[in-house]
From TrEMBL, chains A, B, C, D:
Keyword Methyltransferase in record: no
Binding-site list for ATP: 12-20, 39, 121
Protein name as annotated: Argininosuccinate synthase
GO molecular function, one term: argininosuccinate synthase activity
A Pfam entry, by short name: Arginosuc_syn_C
Pathway involvement of the protein, from the record: Amino-acid biosynthesis; L-arginine biosynthesis; L-arginine from L-ornithine and carbamoyl phosphate: step 2/3
Keyword annotations of the record: Amino-acid biosynthesis, Arginine biosynthesis, ATP-binding, Cytoplasm, Ligase, Nucleotide-binding
PANTHER family per UniProt: ARGININOSUCCINATE SYNTHASE
Length: 403, 403, 403, 403
């Protein structure tokens, strides 16, 4: 298919400046009908209110808003959480996990409306273009992909605003925008501005969601969660849906300044970028699940889970969700999560989410075994034989060297 | 060699109750001369003062105190730190790293004094017996190993105290000791007591070194470190030896409640135990090195470093320091650390050690590349081809499925 | 439970000399009833004929022979094969895979007959004791385990024969037995004798099953197999059960000298041993599955499958079948095997099993893409962008170094 | 730098049709001086004879032929061999290992002659373009790279021949060339023709170097090699340089049909290709080194070496030789190779290279330990304790489940 043959495009529309420009630009350059698609992944009312009108005003024929909030937590966040994935040791993958679910829903809309192309508003230096297009390749290889930022000549907000003004398309976007942000139910990311120099500490306005730990309450607060098969099923005694759990924990975490990260990370496209991420509820969830794992996973299972975490962090970050490899890694971690049941108390205090109490019916920990005294299961005399064989190769090697 | 043939034993002596019992017990049961060996790994004056006299009073012929502090940081801690090792995601391996260096120095003393056996005071349910005996097997397979705790019938502090009293050996140890502790320049660990039930939060007396974050200063403090090849060479503008760096950072960290960990971990011997660890300076060092890595390691190098971290954490924890495998893993991480040069500012505040500023001459981060605008090195048009090939297998698979 | 309380033991009985001794020895030393359990894992009629009578003659109250042949191939061999596991690069795990299934069936018999202990005839230096007892621990921790070879004083065949003779228990075992062997439908292993010196080449009598490649037919023979989800479902055009497939391929492979391996391997207990293994059909199956994978697995999936192979080889070898870790690894490889469908022609010739033809509906290979000319899917111009970003970190690093 | 500014290009010249076209094409399209660079990596006299005259005749100003044969074996092949790398389980990386050394020497020539650009003749669908340009990016980011096959319109041999004919440049290349080949001292690869359909078996003319196993001598032949630190230092009693070792073993292997591989592999650029590879001497070297490893590496070192093999196979295949990650992986394997000393006898017979005898002063194998009887080092009673602790987590888990 060629550019000329495109009749209908579904664009992932955010309501922001760039996707507002994309709609008229597509119509002018591809001479096609444009359908706006908005994924509600919990980015909040501020971004969603009136978004359909906005899309239509920009020239879209229709605008589909799809609520993906519960699905995102259940089908994307939990599987990732069970792996323990944390990109480059810090980043809880908030933007990365949202991309495949958005792309998948966008493909579904495209098929429903009979579109022949997909469009996104990601820039040419970022990860998101790879995540969107990687998902498109796996889910809808027959649809063309349009990436305006790699195609057009617009290079500044000013030019974008001019573009809209010339066409009398209303836009409330400001001329200057210090930071580039992405928000969903799981996190807010902030890039740009003062953060571009790694020798600058983040400003207070780099953080949008969480309270500064220094301004957080002086009194600690405690949250209790119940975990089943690696998922939180109850918070503070109340059963909640996955999304509601996240919302509840976000509110608690944000209040106590939990979940701020400032990181320089390797983008998939070969450059590094610096970002501040806020993941208040997610940080609490991560701590809770890891704490139950401490009780139930044996040593080598734990080690494998850690290896899976490294692998999954790259797969998810790199937009490889819809690949056999990712499915294989997730199958492995789902298997390990089967025993991850228990209860955890987390203390929230000035940026900390610290597990203070934990228990599990599947716990391999036993007071009886761990303590000094005699027990049925562990006989200290076993240790001598264990150590001897465990270090036997070392012994033989050392004896060899003495020959 | 048989038990009967042992003439001289070198015992790793701590001055505590159990090693004080071990000395007379060895003499009575092995009819041999006992040499006490004390490793100074920074456990502090309280434990070391008068220790030689104590050893002699307990029946040792001689007592060797060897200062291993600088060597421990330089040859054991830094190599481990460069791997990023953190056992089961939390524990900075304070006891684990100290064991091989102690065992090695003990072997050297044994050879110098012509001993034919080595003895340690580790219990039969712990990791340390494996670490000591693993090192002994690798370094001195010709020497017999005696592990009294797996051999004798004493099962309580009371019995140990009685044992000494019966022999008129002076001992200031108290009848009850709530916690089992291990201290060195890197950390203090605390086990037992209230911690034995994982549903108990740690008491304040579970922490011995660091200030409670809630009691820590309300004012943040900043520390600046300079890193060369993965090691800190300057702190707050002053060049320091590795050990002095650690001491300096310990003081800062402890004051701000940095480095408290409460973990249930898998012991090598197949059971789980729960411990509270305090690693104030080490936590700061870890954060600092990881931050420089964010600047200098490319994506796949970073991923490998994370894999090495998992491997090294188990190797060090499991007492496999003197093995070809450990040497191989350390060789890999040393290679990666060659570029880990830079400067880092760390903010200390109520338990947090947060890197706020970082820079490096080896940084792969560049403001120019990461930002929106044009540059020489990154051409946005490259991304299209990259993505296409990067997701090509997904595309082909999806096309296949449509056939 | 103590030794004295044991009433009934189920022993894994092979009909060989040592398990024949074990029956009376158990009765004399444990004063208990002994039930013989024989697993038919395809070791052949020679070993199984009259085995029940033999067991009774040795003093067993009952003898249960359980046919595990199909189950072994379906539930143990295929899952392992899908991982690609090959221990230390050579050994196809024939003995290792048989142990968990035998142990599991033995536990079931024990529960059915109300036994309170399990007994095996493995020696104290081998892997099999760990595999049996590892399975017992996971499946029946309440049952006592008796390992006579680690307990009694018999140290030679002669003593074993004397033991039986003294008790008038008939035995046809010969005084000398050069090799120690283990046989099942998958393989025959041979240890001992001339093999004990690694500088000796194997004798012709080290091989029991397969024709010497030098004596194999001068004419090659071809076998065609059809693979579905990583399992062979048809051979030479005929649908066959898993076990019958193996039998068929064994016959073909053995005739052509396929599947001989001579290896020094690391036992789990810390020593090395040398063995000759014959796995004629298994070698063909391995080649066939790997060939289909070449067609259907993408690059990073293939790499993960190789990593899983290494992991699984150790897990299976080490007798860790019934662990969460093993289940997790197998879940990952099952997921990857879902696309492993296709057809393969294998050429058998003087020890070689060489795949000469392969095809798959899931193949990611396409003549069109791979060849020189233009195509829709791969545009050569994409490569420039791909390479640029793929090597961007190298470029930036090199530019840095020039500064 | 722009296209227009290029004054002097160094082209990796092979003497074949495409690089013969590249010389005049560069002059016409870049208006620059062209320097031919020929790497002698053992591709043989046929390709090298008269190559300088040919290059000059095609329009090159100068032609540099650089002998890289010893360096290739010593600095590229041995480090790779020590890792055990074998791409996707089969391919011994013959082309992959040659690319970085060629690229590096080409860069050196470019710097010596003051060139401002580098050019290679790799196609836009292959791996070699990535390998060359990956090396260029790491070694000479300041030099421009020209990849004519991604730039020009020529798409067939006929067009290339016409191009030369129009310019009266002599060329002996034939119009049709069935296979695409790459040769060096380590291997010959063959792609194209009948191989493009994976359901075709290779023709006999797919193999160029090795004798068909069916035509190989009916008498086996034996080769003895001595290995030091993972490198062969003596063959059949004679000390030889690395390259001469390879030549000697190539001759032996080729005669006996050793080292033929037929594989469908994943290219780095996202497509699969099918190739036949002949690596006669290399296959023997691989077998020899792996056999010594069987004697000297302990279990977990062996497992890590296998993991390194997987990693290294991808790194080398993907052209990432000059990266910190590759250096790190090689540092790890060099460390493990320190003990890889020994002697090995390899039997060559109709395509097989089978190690029949092996020994090593560093061997951890000991007849005494492995056999049935008593010994000093291994006490069978140790096994009971070992097994108990080794399977303790399984036991505890199982006991839990019974509660």
């Amino acid at each position: 298919m060629t550019k000329q043959q495109i009749n209908k495009v579904v664009v992932a529309y955010s309501g922001g400046l760039d996707t507002s420009v994309i709609i008229p630009w597509l119509k002018e350059n591809y001479h096609c009908e444009v359908i706006a698609f908005v994924a509600d992944v919990g980015q909040g009312a501020e971004e969603l209110n009136g978004i359909e009108e906005k899309a239509i005003a920009s020239g879209a024929t229709e605008c589909y808003v799809v609520d993906l909030k519960e699905q995102m937590v259940e089908e994307y966040i939990y599987p990732t959480l069970k792996t323990g994935a944390c990109y480059e040791g810090k980043y809880l993958l908030g933007t990365s996990m949202a991309r495949p679910i958005i792309a998948k829903a966008q493909v579904e809309v495209a098929r429903n409306v009979g579109a022949d192309a997909l469009c996104h508003g990601c820039t040419g230096k970022g990860n998101d273009q790879v995540r969107f297009e990687g998902a498109f390749a796996a889910l809808a290889p027959e649809l063309m992909v349009i990436a305006p930022w790699r195609e057009w000549d617009l290079v500044s907000r000013e030019e974008c605003l001019d573009y809209l003004a010339e066409r009398n398309i209303p836009c409330t976007a400001s001329l200057t925008k210090i930071y580039s942000r992405d928000a969903n139910a799981w996190h807010i990311s902030t890039e740009g501005g003062v953060l571009e120099d790694t020798w600058n500490a983040p400003n207070e306005d780099c953080w949008e969601w969480t309270v500064d730990p220094e301004q957080a309450p002086n009194e600690a607060e405690f949250v209790t969660v119940k975990v089943q098969q690696g998922e939180i099923v109850e918070v503070d005694g109340e059963a909640m849906t996955p999304y509601n759990t996240l919302v509840y924990l976000n509110e608690k975490g944000a209040k106590h300044g939990v979940g701020r990260i400032d990181i320089v990370e390797n983008r998939l496209v070969g450059i590094k970028s610096r970002g501040c991420y806020e993941t208040p509820g997610g940080t609490i969830m991560m701590e809770a699940l890891r704490a139950v794992e401490q009780l139930v996973l044996d040593k080598s299972s734990f080690e494998f889970r850690e290896e899976l975490a490294v692998k999954a962090s790259h797969l998810v970050y790199d937009g490889r969700w819809f690949t056999p490899l990712c499915k294989s890694v997730l199958a492995a971690s789902e298997e390990l999560a089967k025993d991850v049941n228990g209860e955890v108390v987390i203390k929230l205090y000035k940026g900390h989410a610290t597990v203070t109490q934990k228990r599990s019916d599947n716990s391999l920990y036993s007071e009886e075994f761990a303590t000094f005294g005699e027990d049925e299961v562990y006989d200290q005399s076993h240790a001598g034989g264990f150590i001897r064989l465990y270090s036997l190769a070392s012994r033989i090697r050392a004896l060899n060297e003495k020959k």
